[in-house]
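[step 3/7] inverse_fold.run input=structure_tokens len=122
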């Protein structure tokens, strides 16, 4: 496994679904650490960057607050069509639901698949 440094700063972002114009958010390769505050009661989908473009990068996603609202972490729509998926607990799929405060995922892209390196979720 190769971890790469893209020679640019990666950022921490804070997302409040109710404050956005839509119920989705597209991550970019610059979004290294993502905190979601889902206190508005609105179900929300967070899309990962294209798996090939994110090769070698690690992303950390944490639900900072959620009163049982589903926050779905999904692979990019283009990746689903191409057959590139997310591997969580040895299960291959294209989404993972986080629905409680402090649930989290640490994800790695090898350029073909997303792998969960660590997670705290049901």
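[step 3/7] decode complete -> sequence:
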């Amino acid at each position: 496994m190769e971890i790469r440094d893209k020679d640019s700063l990666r950022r921490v972002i804070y997302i409040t679904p109710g404050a956005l114009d839509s119920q989705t958010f597209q991550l970019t390769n610059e979004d290294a650490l993502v905190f979601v505050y889902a206190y508005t009661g609105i179900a929300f989908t967070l899309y990962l960057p294209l798996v090939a473009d994110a090769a070698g990068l690690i992303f950390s996603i944490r639900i900072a607050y959620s009163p049982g609202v589903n926050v779905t972490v999904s692979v990019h729509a283009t990746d689903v069509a191409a057959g590139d998926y997310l591997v969580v607990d040895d299960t291959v799929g294209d989404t993972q639901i986080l629905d409680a405060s402090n649930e989290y995922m640490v994800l790695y892209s090898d350029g073909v698949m997303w792998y969960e390196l660590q997670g705290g979720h049901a």
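[step 4/7] annotate
The mean pLDDT is 84.
The helical segments are 77-82.
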